[in-house]
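Sequence, structure tokens reproduced for absentees:
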Amino acid sequence: MAANDLHPLERVLRERIVVLDGAMGTMIQHYKLPEAEYRGKRFRDWKGKDLKGSLELLNLTRPLVVEEIHTAYLEAGADVIETNTFSGTTIGLHDFLFQGEPTRGRKDQEFFQRVVDDVDLRALVQEINFEAARISRRAADRVANETGQQRFVGGSMGPLPVAASISPDVNDPAFRAVSFEQLRQTYFDEAKALLEGGVDLLIVETIFDTLNGKAALFAISDALEKTGRNVPLMISGTVIDKSGRNLSGQTVEASLISIAHAEPLIFGLNCSLGPDEMVPFVEELARVSPYYMSAYPNAGLPDPLSPTGFPETAEIFAPKVAKWAENGWLNVVGGCCGTTPDHIRALTKLVREFSPRVVERTVSST
């Protein structure tokens, strides 16, 4: 493939290891924002539900906080920052923002149809994603202008509180709370708004249920057609235990095969078990994947006594993850839960010494 035919991000991927940012939630926790800060003036009289913890709502009520966090990661060396939209779907935010009639029993497909069809909720979610993209774009462009180094915005599309493959009711294994079409619809609203807001790529991340991930990929295809844009795709799965399988039972290789039809630019792993426990799965995926490889683990296993909820400091975390780059496994590296700009700064310094994993691509990513 000629260099002129490559997306700008892929040109960087061929030159060096690309650095992704760290955790948004970890950084927001440092601000210790009370309920009133989440509400702001606009949602001051919001009825029925506390809004504290709805991180995506801060794109509307405290955008400067979000932009400060993006800027901190960019100044730490991140080439790609992710929008503050990890749970930015109608289903992902319904516990905070759905004002429709609540269900009197378990949440089922009838309930979630009302959620994904709710006009006010859809409009609010679309606004949240659009503004999140614009906030990220401002920060990325400002730092790029200051440093002379191009920065990229990835539209974060995280998992949902429901799964299409698994019943939430152990007494009714055939029950499914949501349908594939409902998942597609909720992800479509998010993807379309992110694209309209100006992201450079879309990142479907922390996939624990492959069927949920496939619904997101189906929605992205629709959103690209609807908006007339064509951006690269990054997909990142997660394993839930030392067997190396996701919640729907697939190994990392099986997950790779399941999403290959989407022809992502980048495929990898994130979140999960922390650097120590992820080593064999990162190595396996790097061996079999034909795509650029990403990895951005948590800062160790959860630890409620640690300030960030995860135990590994930048000095502990960075050398472990940089070793994967030294082994020739990676093209994209960053941090997930519990990581901060300090983690990214230390990681950036170490991985600059190593060459990226070589990938031969014949399919254009533009």
